[in-house]
Amino acid sequence: MNKQDTRNRPIPEGFVPADRKAPFTIANGPFFEKISDDNKLVRAFYVEPKHLNSIKFAHGGMLMTFADSALAAVVFHETGRRCVTIKMNSEFLRPAREGDWVESDVEVIRSTRTVVFVRGSLKVGQKAIFKADGIFHYVHVGS
After folding, report:
1. Structural domains of the chain, ranges and CATH numbers in brackets
2. Which one of 13, 69, 88, 119 has the minimum C-beta count within 10 Å?
3. What does the alpha-carbon distance between residue 23 and residue 19 come to, in Å, rounded to a whole number?
4. Could you tell me the strand order of the sheet in which 16-17 lies?
């Protein structure tokens, strides 16, 4: 274990705070990330009380927010291009609970000149809890 988050939970080896400055992402984080041995970007977060719904599971909106962020982050990691969501489909498979460490597993399926197709899952341990696929539009971010 290397770093600690604000709730003093150990952050698994190799993960560092995600360097993102978007206000929405900051409000829903903290998110963490690492580059795996096979150069895949993996994002993760701990389910905190602020992420829970009324029955004490991770809120579906939080899982969708995190998945959207993870899909777009992998697009940037693999292509070097920024993107915005056109469409995202999601499937809720199992609940995540407070204290769970949720990790993404994402792959770019196809990239064209203007759009990119991505799919992935969120896991707690080895169990998939959520699946998503999306279409993102490349955007130019500049002054």
Report:
1. 16-139 (3.10.129.10)
2. 13
3. 12
4. 16-17, 32-35, 41-46, 101-111, 115-124, 127-139, 82-92
